[in-house]
Amino acid sequence: MGLRQPKSMDECVYFTLRTDKSKSKTKTWVFKEQCTKCKDGLMGKPRDPKTGKPKIRALEYTCSKCDYIVEKKEYEATLTANIEYTCACGFSGEVQMPFKRKKIKIFDEEDQKEKSADALQFVCEKCNKKINVTKKMK
């Protein structure tokens, strides 16, 4: 296994484990990047001064050391997603790709109609089947 595994969730901007209807499984994580200004701290969501927890809906990322601020879209464009997957064909593999979600159409079983969702999409190295890691839908 070549991908570096996160030791804690504090290292990650994003982490998820997913299983879809075709029995393919994915484990996806995105590490926080170093600050481009001081090269010492890690960029992360700003923390609430009362609770100390990250502000989930914040539109910027801040450096833990120098308080340098970067816009969310600008910062997330530089991130790399690490994905471990097991395809429905039985093949297990690893993929690194830019953390850029794109709109895809998926069929919603409850409503019996197609919906669009944001997802990271990659193909299985063995059978070339498209595998999606969708953003959680509300």
Summarize the structure.
By secondary structure, the chain is mainly β. The protein is built from 1 helix and 10 strands; from the N terminus they run βββββαβββββ.
Account of the protein in words:
With 138 residues, the chain is mainly beta. It has two domains: 20-31 and 80-138, no CATH class; 32-78, no CATH class. It has one helix and ten strands, in the order E-E-E-E-E-H-E-E-E-E-E. The chain has one helix at 72-76, and strands at residues 12-19, 25-31, 43-44, 60-63, 69-71, 80-86, 92-98, 102-108, 113-123, 130-134. The chain has a four-stranded antiparallel sheet with strand order 1-2-6-7, with no helix packed on it. It has a three-stranded antiparallel sheet with strand order 3-4-5. The termini are far apart. The mean pLDDT is 87.
